[in-house]
Each structure stands twice: as structure tokens, then as C-alpha cells.
Design a protein that fits this description.
313 residues, mainly alpha, 69% helix, globular
């Protein structure tokens, strides 16, 4: 088997693992922010072991000290998971997962308006499709999915902004640090932020049963291996192929939401989701190969690789 084929298999497996995230959040028996707290805390021992290895990724080994970009990445990561986890609880798994995948569009739009990197016509078309699809998914909800579908959709949509900030911060941090080191420090910074938020909001912090603890542990393992698998594949596959392939994540999440929670998509939601995914693909294909190349990666790909940070989720 060729190295390219192995990388594609690892990427598909990692995308499927990341698709478990919204399901596990619902099963943790904790508050949404608390679920993110346990995801971070329970992933730290393994991240520490991987990041502390000498000579990791051809760079100087050891954890070193966190840079300002790593600290900023942790802040944006905490905002990302906090809003996304609340979105998962308030709306359908499919809506929460698909809407957050607007991150590549947001990052490229930022590059257009702030960095003056003018996109092509295809991107403008993609942006219109993305906005139309997001509106369709929010407007087409049956009202029976989650505790507050409209607010959940808005929270999930805001994740694209927070995740874009995370992407840009990790990109800067990756210029002189390895993937696992950046991910470790971002996770370490984000854990107390999410824990503090959960306490302020009066969330349930401790799972009530062994099944809840198992879901929390599953989130920790998923955080390391899902993100790590994507990061490994990103160093061996073109960004365009990686970005399109990782879009299997919202499909897996939607199927699991139907299987585990009995959630079904209305025809309008299904059409909106298809538009959003098509828009993400078009936006990534339309983008010129100028920096930040990171914008081509999927939103929930956020660990890091030798060439681009991370997902996420």
C-alpha cells in the first residue's frame, strides 16, 4: 500500500472519530462547558506524553514554554468548544456540526477584508451558497430537535468565528513549535477556562453514572486520536484533498444523531446542509495558494500538522 493510500485511510478514520464528538457531548451527563472541560483534562496526560518526547516531528524535543500564540489559541479553543457544545445541546447534531464547518469560508473572508487577499469569483459564489444554506438549516428546523433550535443554530454558527481565530493563532504558533506541543499548551490553557465557565453557569460538573464518565473519557481519547490522525495525514496529502475528505465528519455526526437520538432532517434542513458542504468545498477550491494556506483545512481538524494546524473540534 502506498503512503498516500495509508494517509487517506488514516484521514477517513480520524474524520469518523471526530464525528463522535457531538454524540459524546450529549452522553456526558454534565453541562455543555463541563463536557469540554473533561475533554481537555482527560486528554492532557496522553498529549503530555506525546509532546514531551525528544525530537518530536524533527524539532527540538520537550514542552518548552508556551508562546503568546499558543495562549491565544487556547482562549479561542475554549470559546469554540463552549459555544459548540451548547449548540449541540440546543439544536440537532446535524445542524451543530454542519454550521461550524463554515470556518474555511470565514477565514478566507477575513483574509479578503483584513489582509486584502481578494478571492476569485468562485469564492463569492461559495459565500452566497454558505449563507443561504445556513439560513435554510436554521429556518427549516422542526422545533423538536434540542431545547432551543434557533439559539443553538446561532451558537453553532458563531463557532466558525471562534475556530477561525484558533486557526490563525495556531498557524503562527506552528512556525517554531511542533503540532503536539501546540495542541498540549492550547488544551492546558483552555481547560481552566471551560471549567470556570461551567462553574459560573452552575452546570453539573460530575457525571452521574459510569456511562457518563465513559463518555467524558471517550471525548478525551477522541481529542487526541481524531485530531492527531488528521494532523498526521495533513503532512502527507494535499490540502485540497484533506479538506474535502474531512467533510465526512458532519455526515457521520448526522447519521449517528439519527441512530442514537432519533433525529431526522427535514427536507429544508437537508438541502441547507448540502448547500453548506458544497460551499465549503467551493471556497477551498477557489482559494489561491497564498497564505494562510491553513484556511483550506476543515474547521473540526484543528490539531496541527507540519504544514497546517489541527480540527476540532
Amino acid at each position: 500500500m502506498s503512503s498516500r493510500a495509508r494517509a487517506l485511510i488514516v484521514l477517513l478514520a480520524a474524520a469518523c472519530v471526530l464525528g463522535l464528538a457531538p454524540i459524546l457531548v450529549r452522553l456526558t451527563e454534565t453541562g455543555p462547558a463541563a463536557a469540554g472541560f473533561w475533554r481537555f483534562v482527560l486528554s492532557l496526560p496522553l498529549l503530555f506524553a506525546l509532546a514531551a518526547r525528544p525530537g518530536t516531528e524533527g524539532r527540538k524535543g520537550g514542552l518548552g514554554k508556551p508562546s503568546k500564540w499558543m495562549l491565544l489559541a487556547g482562549l479561542f479553543f475554549a470559546l469554540d468548544l463552549g459555544f459548540w457544545h451548547y449548540g449541540i445541546v440546543m439544536t440537532s447534531v446535524a445542524n451543530a456540526t454542519v454550521l461550524c464547518n463554515l470556518t474555511p469560508v470565514v477565514v478566507t473572508l477575513f483574509a479578503w477584508l483584513v489582509l486584502k487577499e481578494k478571492p476569485g469569483r468562485l469564492f463569492v459564489v461559495a459565500l452566497g451558497l454558505a449563507l443561504l444554506g445556513a439560513f435554510a438549516m436554521a429556518a427549516g428546523a422542526s422545533g423538536e430537535q434540542g431545547s432551543n433550535p434557533l439559539l443553538g443554530d446561532l451558537f453553532s454558527l458563531s463557532v466558525a468565528i471562534w475556530y477561525s481565530g484558533y486557526f490563525l493563532a495556531v498557524q503562527r504558533a506552528r512556525t517554531n513549535a511542533g503540532a503536539m506541543r501546540v495542541t498540549f499548551w492550547a488544551t492546558l490553557v483552555g481547560a481552566p477556562l471551560l471549567g470556570g465557565l461551567a462553574l459560573i453557569l452552575g452546570e453539573d460538573m460530575i457525571p452521574a453514572t459510569a456511562a457518563g464518565w465513559a463518555a467524558c473519557a471517550g471525548l478525551g481519547v477522541m481529542h487526541v486520536f481524531g485530531q492527531g490522525g488528521v494532523a498526521w495525514a495533513l503532512g502527507r496529502l494535499p490540502a485540497s484533498i484533506t479538506a474535502v475528505t474531512i467533510l465526512i465528519q458532519p455526515i457521520v455526526a448526522a447519521l449517528l444523531g439519527w441512530w442514537v437520538f432519533g433525529e431526522t432532517l427535514t427536507p429544508v434542513q437537508a438541502a441547507g446542509g448540502a448547500l453548506v458542504l458544497a460551499a465549503v468545498v467551493l471556497a477551498q477550491r477557489s482559494r489561491a495558494p497564498s497564505p494562510p494556506q491553513l484556511a483550506m483545512a476543515s474547521p473540526r481538524v484543528a490539531s496541527s500538522s507540519s504544514e497546517a494546524p489541527r480540527t476540532e473540534r
